[in-house]
Structure formats: structure tokens, C-alpha cells
Amino acid sequence: MKRNPYLKIGLTIIGLLMLITLFAPWLRSADPAQIDAAQLLMPPSSAHPFGTDQLGRDLLTRIIYGARISLSIGFIAMGIAVAVGILLGSLAGFYGRLVDTLIMRCADVMLCFPTFFLILAVVAFLEPSIFNIMAIIGLTSWMGPARLIRGEILSLKEREFIQAERALGASDARIILRHLVPNALGPVLVNATLGISAAILLETGLSFLGLGVQPPVPSWGNILIEAKSTLGVAWWIMIFPGLAILVTILGFNFIAEGLKKIIG
Amino acid sequence: MSEQPLLEITDLRVTFDLEGRRLTAVDGAQFSVARNETAVLAGESGSGKTITALAISRLLPPNAAISSGSIRFNGHDILRMSQEELTGMRGKEIAYIFQEPVSFLNPVFTIGDQIAETIVLHQRVAPQQARRQAAQLLEQVRIPDPQRVLASYPHQLSGGMNQRAFIAMSLACQPRLLVADEPTTSLDVTIEREILDLLMELKKSLGFSLLFITHNLAIARKISDRVIIMFQGKVVDQGATDTVFRCPRHHHTRELIQAYEKIGKL
Amino acid sequence: MILEIRDVSKAYAVEKGMLRSAAGSVRALDRVSLSVREFSTMGIVGESGSGKTTLAKIIMGLVEQSSGEVVFNPAFIRTFHKDVQIIFQNPFNSLDPKMRVVDLVGEPLVIHKLARGRRQIKERVAGLLETVELPADILSRYPHEFSGGQRQRICIARALACEPKFLVLDEPISSLDLTIQARMLDLFLDLKQRYKLTYVFISHNLAVVKHIADDLVVLHQGRVVEQGVAQDIFARPAADYTRLLLAAA
Prior knowledge:
The structure holds 3 protein chains of 3 kinds. Chain A has helices at about 5-20, 25, 60-95, 95-110, 115-125, 130-140, 145-155, 160-170, 170-210, 220-230, 235-264. Chain A is mostly helical. In chain A, helix 3 (about 60-95) packs parallel to helix 7 (about 145-155) and helix 3 packs parallel to helix 11 (about 235-265). Chain B is of the alpha/beta class. In chain B, the strands form 2 sheets. Chain B has a 6-stranded mixed sheet, sandwiched between helices. Chain B has a 4-stranded antiparallel sheet with strand order 2-1-4-5, with helices on one face. The longest helix of chain B has 18 residues, at about 190-205. Chain B is globular, with a radius of gyration of 19 Å. Chain C has helices at about 50-60, 80-85, 100-110, 115-130, 150-160, 180-195, 205-210, 230-235, 240-249, and strands at about 5-15, 20-35, 40-45, 65-70, 85, 165-170, 200-205, 215-220, 225-230. The longest helix of chain C has 18 residues, at about 180-195. Chain C is globular. The chains are: A mainly alpha, B alpha/beta, C alpha/beta. Chains in contact: A-C, B-C. The interface between B and C is medium-sized, with 23 and 25 residues.
């Protein structure tokens, strides 16, 4: 039922974004790393719609390739978080008692740390590869989905249809995987969608600090490093990555709003 | 016997707007309830009986509309009343009791508070006076130890007690018509008996008309003067209870009577 | 005897206050004993608070009794979860809302390995639906598309998929309209005869129980107040409570 303007707009934005990133090489034949010494810091023009940066690289291309990085980090990191969260949360909710206490106290401990600093600390020790960033963001974001799924399962567990499944002789694994988790997914999906936004912002922040994606691989975050030093001279280096981030976050948040409405 | 009926429903049509589709819940209902009469509105789920009952004081959900017909109560045209007149009438002239009293009672206020609130709202008396009246009402509905119940919260009382308290609340302002929508369906059989007896007693002493909605004809047999059978939004049969039982005119009435014969009575 | 319940009691601890200290217990069942003859219908009658639903869950092993034994005769009941099934009161809550009819009714076939492959399952499910007088074209529909009576039939089809010998029916028709109740009762009687089933039929409605029960147990506040052959009890109720129930019906 698409009387859901938020969902429509959100899906349109992200849909377009994903199409653009998928077809990046065909859309823009320029090489994001291509240095053109003659075109340093040029404002937007027909040849370079978003202008060029300090090394004469086309900003539009860099932003499109940066989108690839950000989106994949966002999806994969949240994917890891949701997978770990669903696993731990459903075990905690279903079995209760000791298992529940153990898992939830772990979650509480991790929630005590401000996520960003936790990630900073870990990243400082590991080399900042894209894979590491995804893994770290994912492994420090599982608590949200875990709590949500645990809560849903706690209440679903006592519903009659679950008792009926037990009476049929269904195993624990079957009950959890086929019956409880599918019915409990609603809030987790909303949380996961918002989590993608958060993951993208996290990555941007890390890259901006030099601890994330390393140049010359373009990421919206590390493009902004340049923006800092060229602020007065080249407004386009700050504005366009910023807008890209804004639109992407907005898109995912709109989808989350739309999902909230569907779940009711 | 040419006295004007208390409630007169003529050719009532209620439609629902569900995401673009229009559903007719009530399709040309027609019946009346006389003063001091007990009428049973019988039908299965989906027959439109609850919607009809709610339509009487225009308590329909926002996506429902009365598309045609007329409702006359005590000489007034309900469909032409202003919002103010309607609110003044609800609770005072027409009162309702529903199936699950616990869902309709506020869980964070005591029974005493809630009954007193209704009294203060409609009769504009001082709170202490209202509480005294509330205690009297609880006695009227045969609640033992009214003071304790006045101070209790809904979740502390049994289903039967809550229903009695709810009845007390609805009779607080001496309405002319009490509409009871399946008030005993979720109660035990012995408690149901008590509540039905209580309603009959109160009706005799206070003098009001009772429109009782149910899917169980056994209740109609026990308490009503007239029975109105609804099926798929239409009134398919009506008349004096004995007559309808002896000479059912519609096949659905016959089905209901057959079911009643089989498992509605011993 | 296919089932013997010996001196079964169930007490729930009552926790009071913020620190949840034990403050006594509630006896849901108090030394209940009864025996069910094979291929008969045992009616269990009681009002709310009588313990009848607790008893149903204890028979099904969904709740553990505090004391006493529940003994099924191994001559009849070999694989518990297959041979013993239950139909719950509320058809709106007994089916997983996210599953299709074919998956719901077919699930026992998968769990107990009674059918293999998508096609076999579909065929068996279609057959089961026919048994409960539901059209075969509803396989890919979801529970919310059906009425109470239809959902209850789906639950029955699902229970029958296990090829059970013993069925616990916990107020299976109480939340349905009266005419549907009558039809369902006929269905139950028909199935019992066709598949040689044994029933434990729980209800608060004496008229319904009279229609279907061979033997009768009357429960009141967790205790057996009267038991015996149904006809005898209806004709000559011995206990006061039984007489009260009969008078109110």
C-alpha cells in the first residue's frame, strides 16, 4: 500500500543513488584518480559539473565512487550488526535466564562506551582497511537489533501460535528461525535502516579524521579533508560531498519512517 | 398502543471507507424500540448489529458514514443534532455497556473515581455528593461491600464485578435507553445468569428500554419482548420473541433457532 | 484406558512487592485424577478459574505439573507429538500470521517426516483441507484472510496432518458464532468416527458438552467436583456446583 509518501520518496532517492553507483563507470568515464594539472581547483563547469579538487581530479566522479564506498560500508556493516544482533537477541529472548543475562550484560557493557570512541580505539590498533571498518562498525552496533529482537521474542514466545508449534513437535531451532524471527523483524528493520545512516555517518567521520578510507580511494569523508583547507577558495569541495551525505541520510531516514508506518 | 416508540430507525445505511473501497456495513436497517421494552438485536459477527447500535448515538469511527436513513430518539432527529447536543445526550439519555468492561474502564483510576466523574459531568453536583451517589449505585447493582469496590482499580476486580460496576456507571444518569453490546459473552455461565437477572431487575425498578445485542438466541428467549434478526447488514426478521421463534420468516432465523435448539440450551 | 491422570496438582508461586519475594501460591489444580477410555470423548466442564486450560496444557506437556502423573498408554500413543494434538480456543492467535495455509498445514508433515517434496506436501494439504470442508484453492492465502470458523478448520487440518490418535480440544468453538459452533460440532463428531480418535473436550458450555461427551468431569477451582458417565450426571447431578451450572445454562 503505497499511500506512504515517506517510503516512496526514500526509496526513490536511495534507488537512484544505487543505480548511479552501479553504473558509475558508464556514467562518467573519467577516472576518479586522474590528475589534471591544468585544471586545479576549477569551479563547476560543463566539463566538470561539480568542479575539480586540489589535484585537478573531477569531483563528480569522486563523489560517485565515494557513494559506492559509503553505501557498501553502510549496508555491510549493518548487515553484520543485524545478523549478530538477531542471533544473540533471539537466543537471549528464547532461552532467558542465564543465557539472557549473559548476553544482555555484554550488550550493556558495550553500550557503556561511546561508539565513536570505541571504534577510534580499535581502528588505532588495526590498519584502516575498508573491510576492517565494516567489521568494526558492525560488531559495535549489534546491541540495538539484539535488544529489539529480544523484546519482541519475549512477548511473542507466549503467544498461542508458538505454543501450537511446540505442541506439533517443532524443535527450538525451527520455532526460533521459522516463526519467532520473521514475526519479530518489524522493529529490527526500522532500526537497521536508521543504522545504515548511522554507519555512513560513522564512516564519514572516521575518514574525515584520516582513520577511515585512505586516499586516493575517494570517500565522502576524505574528500572533506580537502574541503577544510580550501574552504574560502573552493566552496564546491565542501558543498557537494555535504549535499550527497545529506540526501543519502535523508533517503534512508525517510525509508525508516515509511517502514514504521507499515509496521504500525 | 399508539404511543410513540422511544427509538425509531428507518432505512439506515452505514458505509465504511477502507482505503478507497466502500463497504456497506448496514444496508437499510429498520426497527423500533418502545418505552420500557426489552428488544434483542440478534445476529452473527459481520451482520452489522454492533455498527447499528453505535450509529444510534453517532459513535461511529471516523471512516464510517451514515449515508441514508433516519434515527429518531425520543422525538429528536439524531442525524440533525449538533455535536454539543449529542455529547449532552450520550450517557444521559442513551447509555452503553460493552463486552469487555476492562477495556472500557480506565486502568489508572479507581471505580469510584470513574463513576463519580460521569455523575459530575452530567449532573453538575459536588464531588462528595457524586461519590455518595456512586456508592448507592453500586448497591443498586448488588455489589457486596461497595466501599471496597469504589476504592478498587479495574484489574483488581473479576469480570463479573467490572461489568456490574460498568452497568452502575451507565445507569448513573438514569438514561432512557441502555444499549448492551454482548455484555455477557465473555463471562462465565453462572455470572451471565446473574448479570441478566440484574439487568431485568434494574429495568423494572428504574424504567428504561433495553436494546441487547447478542448472537445467542438463548438470551433472547430468556429476557426479551421483541427480537430483531440481522443478517449481512439487513434486518431479515423481527417481531415478538415467541412469534419469531414459532414462525421464523427468514432462513437465517431458522439457522439461528436450529443452533439454539442444538447447543444454546440444555 | 488411553490416558490416565493421577493426582495431578499445579501451583503457581505468587510474587509480591518490588523484591518479588514469594508470598504464597495459587493452586490452579488440586489432586485431579481422571481416566480417558480409548475412542471416547471425555468432557471437562468448568468456568474460568477452574483450571481446565492448565489441565489441557499439562496433558500436552506445555506446562509441567507440580506433582502427580500424566500417563499415556504406549499401546496407543507411541510418538507423543505426533499422536497427541491440541486445538486451542482462539483461532485468531493459533496460526502464525506470516505463514501461508500450505506451510501451516504442511508443517507437521515436515516435522514428522510424513511427506517429502513440495508436491507431496501440497497434495496432502489439499486432501486435509477437503476433510475439514475447506476449498483446496486457499493454499497460498494467509490466516488474516479467513473468518474465525475457517481458521479453526485450518487448525484442525493441521492437527490431523499428524495423523493423531488423541485430540485435546480446549474450548475449540467458544469464540465462534452459534451457527458455526453447531457445524463445527458435527465436524468433530464426524472426524472422530472416521479416524477413530479419542477426544478430551473442554468447555464451559454444558449444552455443547452434552452433545459430544461420553464421560464427564466437572472442575471447580482446581478440584474435581463430580465425574462419571455424561448422561448420568446430566440426569442426576450429585454435586451442588454441577446443579448450579445446569440451572444457569
